[in-house]
Amino acid sequence: MLVPLPFPGPLDYLAPEPLEPGELVSIPLGKREVVGCVWDKTSTVPSDFAAPPGREIALERLRPVGAKLDVRPLPHSLRRFVDWVAAYTLTPPGLVLAMATRIHLKDAPKPTLGWVRTEAPEGDLRMTPPRRSVLNVASEIPMSTADLSSKSGASSAVIRGLAAAGLLREALIPLIAPFATPDPGYGAPVLSEEQAEAAAHLCRPVRESRFEVTLLEGVTGSGKTEVYLEAVAACLDEGRQVLVLLPEIALSAQWTDRFIRRFGAAPAVWHSDLGQKLRRETWAAISDGSARVLVGARSALFLPFNDLGLVVVDEEHESAFKQEEGVMYHGRDMAVVRARLADAPAILVSATPSLETLANVETGRYRHELLTSRHGGAAMPDVELVDMRHDPPERGLFLSPVLCEAIETTLRAQEQAMLFLNRRGYAPLTLCRACGHRMQCPNCSAWLVEHRARGILTCHHCGHTERLPNSCPECHAENSLVPIGPGIERITEEAKMRFPDAKILVMASDTLGSPAATAEAVRRISDGEVNLIIGTQIVAKGWHFPNLTLVGVVDADLGLGGGDLRAAERTVQLLHQVAGRAGRAERPGRVLLQSYVGEHPVMTALVSNDFQAFMDQESAQRRPGFWPPYGRLAALIISAPDGAKADALAREIALAAPECEGVQVLGPAPAPLAVLRGRHRRRLLLRTVRGIAVQPLLRKWLADIRPAGGARVDVDIDPISF
Ligand code: ADP
Ligand code: ZN
User: What does the entry list as the binding residues for Zn(2+) 1 (predicted)?
Assistant: First the structure.
């Protein structure tokens, strides 16, 4: 029995009645009740990865399990996936299981009952007008008493009377319209030759229920979505289920609309903001197969798909797929594993694929489909560099004359412009002009970010918030604190001053909050209610705004600093995606990149629209040192309440480091955030050549390490920053 707690493996229990693997049961554990899952005796996880066996307990001390839950058992492929993720990420399997069963841990929400019309004949019941009216309104779709009585004009007594006579029956009211089955043929587009060929290749393994990974690459607007929806259609045609992963839930509204236009029915949706009740219904609908297509965040990988026939990862290069807390897994990589364990193909989709995926294409592990032209012959946006050394903004401002003029022109032409800056708040740093003191988070090694609209300084890592003081906390000088650098609030202030007639919309994760607010913002852009959009990375996502013809990147260099080997790759991917927002329809788009390092390969790649050369260069840089994807990497994050403890533990671990060929240990060094939420963090990197499994090495290495006094070691396999 696997329980959702950090035991090394399954625990033994007595079962009063025979239980099948996968069944969920309530389990007594100390004074608590948890939901456990009957786990298989044998596991197909590679022995390298196999988790240690559970603790052996004498038979007479075994406790009996509690009641069985009224849900379907977790399918075999999901159980194997839980084992696999646990072994790969070195996480106790119970904690991975928890991601699949979490929704059953709280009390079930009370189902709401309603009335449905039965097949029973009216018999000799006298048909008064109110009774007739109720029967006319009632159908096989459950309706609440209040609804039924308001629609029929009859009292609840009449309804109860009809129920007593057997003409109405109580039934659960579904929270959402039952998951309709999308129609594979509905709204099918006519594909171009290139698209049709790619679609045919993607459909083949779907038809054959065969695991195969394909990278679907193509510039923004080349019809990648249209093409992979053909594979979705093929899978629906086969009667199997489809999982589509998107990096950001905020995206799913536009995606869902498009899906409905293509298939005539809505997909199920999964993300962390779903209400408890909707979660349960979606979970159940995936489990019994009534939901056929689900679009979701990475956590959707842990849903109990009954018959998974295709997995799609859209924007596969996105770092949002990486979970950095709790079970640290990469959604894209685990999606491939999930597909393999279900004998289903996986499609990875991107305009700027990750170096990892390209390396897998190169070695032949993944197939490659390339769409080379934009649909309908639309031109790629024209990307220009604004050299801030030669064309600087006025003192204290951030928009260069060239960019301002371009915005003017765009707005005058009744078109829309977008300013992109990947930084929330007003200013990233607040400094005392008198003494040079910098406002820092008390819990993290990070500056406090001013949010002027709310009059506060806040830490974007731990959430620490304080009022913006009037005087410097260090030297007590009055009114000496000044903001350094821009966040989007400050850019908005400047835009309001420069373009007083513009209708501005600000889009950032903290101003949009909910998916509904995001959908409303998208609608306002689509309907032309606004013409100047200012946003953080949320605006970079796959939105489609036909009248948006200018994109200004306020600080293209942001993200290049920090010494992270992947910084350049990430910046290219993000900025290319931002650029892709411009001019998707008949209108050609223009993109201006404000940069102080115009000769940087990232800028060259963006301006020339040549990513092949850039990626080749990246790969040439990483290959000799066996940096990912040419070697394997694992990060050990050692943290403790104070720096000395963290140092001591880091040194102890470093001394026990494995010594063998092809393996190198780097560090200890301060972790990228050396202090986070009051914990001091050090990092060791384990780097190996390809072909060495890092998990057994790590398990052996850490076997005798016993962190004490609040210290901890977290293992991050395949960290995304290094
Ligand atoms: P990508 O996913 O590569 O950015 P999309 O699939 O979103 O590209 O296509 C861009 C636009 O072109 C969308 O509006 C899409 O509906 C349209 N489009 C692409 N291919 C076709 C096609 N064969 N027929 C009709 N419209 C198409
Ligand atoms: Zn903080």
Answer: 432, 435, 472, 475
